[in-house]
Amino acid sequence: MNRPSKRDKRIAREYLKLEHQENKSARLRTTPAGDRDVRTAGNPGTSKTPRSSKNPGSISQMRMEWTTAMVDQEGVWAWGEPRAWSGEHWSDLIHPNLSEFEMLTWAEIWAQRTGGRKRHKKHHDMEVRVLRDEAVERWGEIGELGEITFRFRLGNRRRLWGYRQVNKFHLIWWDPTHKIYPTDPD
């Protein structure tokens, strides 16, 4: 009888923790704001059936979807990089990667790690406030996007920045040089 390894146990714990966080986040994001009419009388009936056998509160088993509806491609960053990606970047790097991510569930995306010794998460949430000051200001100018970004790592320095809304990733920026959240001193 094979016993699970420490690694398998750790990964299982991480999945449970992520699922718990996502359940909580999904409930908070999908709760409508404002006044609601509360039903005080009547019987809702028993003819309703669930739409899915999956837990609707959990996005971890949902497939990733994406959109470019909110993309920010106007102007140039202070470090000289245009916000707009080239046609070559889109066709060779951005679109193929997003298409691959579409075939994965969020749990599979969160489980991906870098290949180095420290094995960091490749794709993860980040607080907006830790980004470069110009990016924080720009994030606020774009609109009510929230306090958390989501970052996809496409290679050594290449990143896609945006935000998640339930299982949909809203692409905001293409960062081919890792300048929106620099890790190396300039």
Word description of this protein:
- There is one protein chain.
- The protein has 186 residues and is of the alpha+beta class.
- The protein has a domain at 60-175.
- It contains 4 helices and 5 strands, in the order H-E-H-H-E-H-E-E-E.
- The chain has a 5-stranded mixed beta sheet, covered by helices on one side.
- It is globular, with a radius of gyration of 20 Å.
Give me a quick take on this structure.
By secondary structure, the protein is an alpha+beta fold. The chain has four helices and five strands; from the N terminus they run αβααβαβββ. A five-stranded mixed β-sheet has the order 1-5-4-3-2, with helices on one face.
Key descriptive features of the protein:
single chain, 186 residues, alpha+beta, 5-stranded mixed sheet, 4 helices, 15% strand, globular
- What is the radius of gyration computed over CA atoms, rounded to a whole number of angstroms? 20 Å
End-to-end separation: 54 Å
Helix-strand string? HEHHEHEEE
Q: Which sheet architecture does the biggest sheet show? A: 5 strands, mixed
Average pLDDT metric? 83
Low-confidence stretches: 48-52
Shape: globular
Number of helical stretches of at least 4 residues: 4
Provide the structure class. Answer: alpha+beta
Helix content: 25-40%
- Beta content comes to 15-25%
Q: How do the strands of the widest beta sheet line up side by side? A: 1-5-4-3-2
The overall strand count is 5
